[in-house]
Amino acid sequence: MNSYVDLHIHSKYSDDGQFEPGRLVDMCKENNVKIMAIADHNTVEAIPEAIEYAKKNGIKYIPAIEIDCTYSGVNLHVLGYGINYKNSVFNKIGKDIEKQEIAASLKKLELTNRLGFNLEKSTLDSISSNGVYTGEMFAEILLKDEKYIDHTLLKPYRMGGSRSDNPYVNFYWDYYSQGKSCYVEIEYLSLRETIKIINDNGGVAVLAHPGNNLKGRFELFDEMVKEGIQGVECFSSYHEIDVNKYFYDKAKEYDILYTCGSDFHGKTKPSIFLGRNGCDCPEEIEILLKKHKLI
To answer: I want to staple 279 with a disulfide (CB 3.0 to 4.6 A). Which of 3, 33, 78, 124 is the partner?
Structure first.
């Protein structure tokens, strides 16, 4: 089911994104997405170009960002919608995280090789534009390397394997996400600091794909509402129907904004498509966006 609202899209300005902002606008039009937001990781670089292209194509565009932060020991992604993207604070956040990520990437390389591989830094640099190595990049290189065609660890990510639906991003979740064997800690802003920055810049703070980040700890969401979170991405391409319903009901209970997003990236998430986010009530979301003065 395609929704005409997709508020979680990534461009090439995310380390794991693929497409130019203008191309994403064209793709949204091709997929009948009428309300969109590019929410890149910790940067707003795509917004000026995207706004211009969206206007020319008759698509409603919401300035947005996806900020890494932490709450109660859990790493989160918080979406900021309707922000004053011209404030340099957002790119400052991105530059600080990028600096940490570049240092962490060398440690990730070391930990990856401990799994039974022999990757060179130069190989990662050939596909990274800034020295940041994501879990998806490691997966792309390893899965394409004929030396590892029969490597046991990679079998679940090859065609027909249990993790082959989104092999690159699943490899990231299994080895590089918080608590996994190749995870390297980054110092992120707190949830409260993140909400304040978004609010101070005219935006609305929305928790992204909670079914992923709060897996097994859904009770934390109630605490986050008390901390000031103003919305939840209850409809996500990552969620099962029951998870969508859980957070939809929570949004109704707290009378907060609820949104939908595919988290489209391109090649790193090949089974995720623009507009496919499990949302069966885009009209409701459009009304809420108007209520919050986001469109």
So the answer is: 3
User: Which helix H or strand E contains 21, and what residues bound it?
Assistant: helix 21-30
Q: Name the nearest CA neighbour of 246 among 293, 204, 294, 207.
A: 207
Domain shared by 118 and 245, yes or no: no
Instruction: Please compute the mean of the pLDDT values over residues 113-140 and round it to a whole number.
Output: 95
Query: Which CA distances in Å does 163 have to 79, 135, 273, 276?
Result: 27, 14, 18, 20
Helix, strand, coil % in the chain, rounded to nearest 5: 40, 15, 40
pTM: 0.92
Does residue 184 lie in a domain region? no
User: Is the domain of 143 the same as that of 221?
Assistant: no
The total number of residues written for the chain in this structure: 295
Phi, psi of 178 (to 5 degrees): -55, 130
Cα torsion through 137, 172, 268, 230, rounded to 10: -130
pLDDT at residue number 61: 98
Residue with tokens 């609305």: 204
In a domain, 276, yes or no: yes
Distance between terminal CA atoms of the chain?
Answer: 23
Gyration radius of the chain's alpha carbons:
19
